[in-house]
TrEMBL record:
The keyword Membrane applies. The lineage of its organism: Bacteria, Pseudomonadati, Thermodesulfobacteriota, Desulfovibrionia, Desulfovibrionales. It comes from the Bacteria. The keyword Glycoprotein does not apply. Keywords: Membrane, Transmembrane, Transmembrane helix. It comes from Desulfovibrio litoralis DSM 11393. The chain crosses the membrane at residues 28-48, 60-87, 107-137, 144-166, 194-216, 223-243. This is Glycerophosphoryl diester phosphodiesterase membrane domain-containing protein.
Length: 290
């Protein structure tokens, strides 16, 4: 590889969107296959849950618990695999599903630890003040004040989220210790957090559109724009809900791709020489290729 060049004159958001387009155009089948696999596992898990609730069989209950563990482990691995595959794609290096999952597997405990640390941080900063306030007001706070309080709590949570937006790519690509990923992410995102917020808004709207797919036929019927029998509405609703579920998973797994594209663009603009040195020294080449 000859390295990469930064184009700081181009709008940051447009550059990230262009990066996302590049990854999807080159890794679309990778993206779809893994996402459909997760969706199929989720549907199977729901089926096992329904059987467990109806029959109360201990074997089904154990099977359901095992399935939950396998499912969430696979989701974490997929998240890491998408980050690794997306980054190597942006570096114009080939990587297959096996290599991506193998690399993600070597960081699975770091991923789990980072997820727990992040969740704990948000709980301490957001949930504890909310619980204390609720107790002080004896759950009798005026509804308008509750909305205002929720907005006030959302502000520090959003600031933290923007600061820590690239912690997972830092973990798997910079090989940083869990505690160091937060400072490293804060350093990289400095000066670009409003741009990242704009990216969140764009993909949030896309996610909202995907979530609304399942309600589409019901909405048309309620508005009097579509006249269907109840049974037909139910049948169409099931189909649209299935499509909506698939789209929600596609949207979910779009997240690591977007995060990685943001990370790549930040490093390209802030640390082009360091990034190119790592590329030239084959730092990002998969182990089995060396």
């Amino acid at each position: 590889m000859t390295g990469v060049q930064a184009n700081n004159s181009r709008n940051f958001i447009l550059s990230v969107l262009s990066n996302v387009k590049t990854v999807l155009s080159k890794k679309l089948m990778f993206f779809i296959v893994v996402t459909l696999g997760v969706a199929a596992m989720s549907i199977a898990m729901d089926a096992i849950k329904s059987m467990t609730e109806s029959r109360m069989n201990i074997i089904l209950l154990i099977l359901f618990i095992i399935f939950i563990i396998v499912f969430f482990s696979f989701v974490f691995l997929s998240f890491g695999a998408f980050i690794y595959a997306s980054f190597l794609t942006l570096l114009d290096q080939k990587v297959n599903i096996g290599e991506a999952f193998s690399h993600a597997l070597s960081y699975i405990w770091s991923f789990l630890g980072l997820g727990l640390m992040t969740g704990l941080a948000f709980f301490i900063i957001i949930a504890i003040p909310a619980l204390v306030t609720a107790v002080l007001f004896n759950f009798a706070m005026d509804e308008n004040l509750l909305y205002l309080f929720a907005i006030v709590l959302a502000i520090p949570m959003l600031i933290l989220y923007l600061m820590w937006y690239v912690t997972f790519p830092v973990c798997i690509l910079d090989n940083e210790r869990i505690m160091d990923t937060f400072g490293r992410s804060r350093q990289l995102t400095e000066g670009y957090r409003l741009h990242i917020f704009g990216i969140l808004v764009i993909f949030g709207l896309i996610d909202l559109l995907g979530s609304a797919i399942g309600l589409f036929p019901v909405l048309l019927t309620d508005l009097g724009l579509l006249y269907l029998s109840t049974s037909t509405i139910v049948s169409i609703g099931i189909i649209f809900n299935f499509i909506g579920e698939i789209l929600s998973y596609l949207s979910f797994f779009l997240t690591p791709i977007v995060i990685t594209c943001v990370y790549y663009e930040l490093r390209l603009r802030k640390e082009p020489e360091a990034l190119n040195n790592l590329i030239k020294n084959n730092y990002y080449v998969t182990t089995d290729k060396l």
